[in-house]
């Protein structure tokens, strides 16, 4: 009984004082490792011979000790804390190794250099984000998804369209976007609309196939029950087929959210008016400014994760009754 009252609560988990004390010690060692890491310069000439590797080993020891201690605490927590700790420790380890081996920034920049480039080029990257995400990815995503849903409704309503169109949907979805992008850019010009068309085509086919399968997955027993009660076909569609198709629809929308950013960035590789994350990655890679390249990649990754998370939140909001969300 006394041991239970001695436990403490931390982020939704319960820990003994010993576990909490070990976590604090590990955090202190980790902070010491970070301090030693920041003291490591980039140039071998700035360090007396034989003094670099002791500092490197101490920094690595701090990172590893922090990983073990904080990982033991985070293993019993909920939410995003374990993932954030893993990301932080990975970045620290990469920083230590790149500084220890004195890797040129033109080859692989350290995470600290990428962060500095992200801060310095934030105005340019923000403008590129507006073009790539708001104009190209989002417009193409919405347009392609709406067109796909309407097409799926027509396929389910008219059975001959299922036999005539659905096989080609699977066929065209296997075409690599890298092969399709230059053709569309040449046909529709260098403006953002050509990249939005690429995104629309990319997301169209997965959404069509999934929505058709979802609408056709309605329980025959439920459909027979609606006919027994003389429910109109339109109301039967809303009450039976639409709820059955929602999990399939959101699964397709989550896949399409990642394909949208990929399609927009790949499309910019083949021609643009001078703005966009894909254009920034291509032009700065040619100049060997890889810190800005990685900063643009980080921004694109954050946008993709946020977009996916938004769709996932909508899925939980509208399909909370489904077994997969219980």
Automatic annotation (TrEMBL):
Protein family (similarity comment): Belongs to the binding-protein-dependent transport system permease family.
Membrane topology, record value: Multi-pass membrane protein
Organism: Deinococcus peraridilitoris (strain DSM 19664 / LMG 22246 / CIP 109416 / KR-200)
InterPro entries the record matches: MetI-like (IPR000515), MetI-like_sf (IPR035906)
Main location: membrane
GO CC annotations, alphabetized: plasma membrane
Domain ABC transmembrane type-1: 126-311
Transmembrane segments: 21-41, 53-73, 80-101, 138-156, 168-190, 196-215, 236-253, 259-279, 291-311
Keyword terms, alphabetized: Cell membrane, Membrane, Transmembrane, Transmembrane helix, Transport
SUPFAM superfamilies: MetI-like
GO terms, biological process: transmembrane transport
Entry-linked CDD domains: TM_PBP2 (cd06261)
Intracellular or extracellular location(s): Cell membrane
Name of protein: ABC-type nitrate/sulfonate/bicarbonate transport system, permease component
């Amino acid at each position: 009984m006394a041991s239970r009252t001695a436990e403490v609560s931390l982020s939704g988990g319960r820990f003994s004082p010993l576990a909490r004390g070990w976590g604090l010690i590990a955090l202190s060692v980790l902070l010491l490792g970070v301090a030693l890491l920041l003291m490591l310069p980039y140039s071998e000439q700035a360090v007396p011979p034989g003094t670099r590797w002791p500092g490197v080993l101490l920094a690595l020891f701090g990172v590893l000790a922090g990983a073990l201690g904080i990982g033991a605490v985070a293993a019993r927590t909920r939410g995003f804390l374990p993932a954030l700790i893993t990301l932080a420790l990975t970045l620290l380890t990469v920083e230590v190794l790149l500084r220890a081996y004195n890797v040129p920034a033109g080859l692989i920049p350290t995470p600290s250099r990428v962060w500095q480039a992200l801060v310095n080029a934030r105005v340019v990257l923000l403008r590129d984000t507006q073009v790539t995400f708001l104009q190209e990815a989002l417009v193409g995503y919405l347009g392609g998804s709406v067109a796909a849903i309407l097409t799926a409704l027509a396929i389910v309503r008219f059975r001959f369209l299922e036999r005539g169109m659905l096989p080609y949907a699977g066929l065209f979805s296997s075409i690599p976007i890298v092969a399709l992008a230059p053709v569309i850019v040449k046909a529709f010009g260098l403006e953002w609309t050509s990249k939005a068309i690429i995104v629309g085509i990319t997301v169209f086919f997965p959404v069509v196939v999934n929505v058709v399968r979802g609408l056709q997955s309605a329980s025959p027993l439920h459909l027979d029950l609606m006919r027994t009660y003389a429910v109109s076909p339109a109301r039967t569609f809303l009450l039976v087929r639409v709820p059955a198709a929602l999990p399939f629809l959101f699964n397709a929308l989550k896949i399409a959210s990642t394909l949208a950013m990929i399609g927009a960035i790949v499309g910019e590789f083949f021609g643009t008016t001078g703005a966009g994350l894909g254009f920034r990655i291509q032009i700065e890679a040619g100049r060997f400014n890889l810190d800005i390249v990685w900063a643009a990649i980080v921004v694109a990754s954050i946008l993709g994760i946020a977009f996916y998370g938004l769709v996932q939140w909508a899925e939980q909001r509208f399909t909370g009754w489904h077994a997969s969300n219980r």
